[in-house]
């Protein structure tokens, strides 16, 4: 029995490691992109002061830190003077409402008085959450040309330690996509 359980766990681990990423990239757009063609990188600089970035500064800093680690693990060096690849990040966090549709079996109506009415299904809110999206643009620095763009969207966890893990997972998913599709 233990042997069968061990085989099942191994099979599930193998399948989950081969699962597709959640990164969205425009079809047939960046097939020529190869990360290995670049040796140095840096992040795009914001030229104008922007107060709207203040709430997201910690998030952007964590993204930069995790992306830097991923790039350096692939042999790229971060330099500020004339990098071959610039990375631009876009972050959007939006409040969302989870809804469900009512139906007669879960939301029955009660009788009172005459039956001169009708019942119809409707959507009702059941939960609120925050959804975060990160868009990563790789820009060929000498020509200032976008060479790859991908987006990943996730529910933003409420706990700070879960947020850190979610950021790491998002970066891992982006580089997993790049590793699989842009050799």
From TrEMBL:
<protein>
    <submittedName>
        <fullName>DUF4136 domain-containing protein</fullName>
    </submittedName>
</protein>
<feature type="domain" description="DUF4136">
    <location>
        <begin position="31"/>
        <end position="176"/>
    </location>
</feature>
<feature type="signal peptide">
    <location>
        <begin position="1"/>
        <end position="19"/>
    </location>
</feature>
<dbReference type="Pfam" id="PF13590">
    <property type="entry name" value="DUF4136"/>
</dbReference>
<keyword id="KW-0732">Signal</keyword>
<dbReference type="InterPro" id="IPR025411">
    <property type="entry name" value="DUF4136"/>
</dbReference>
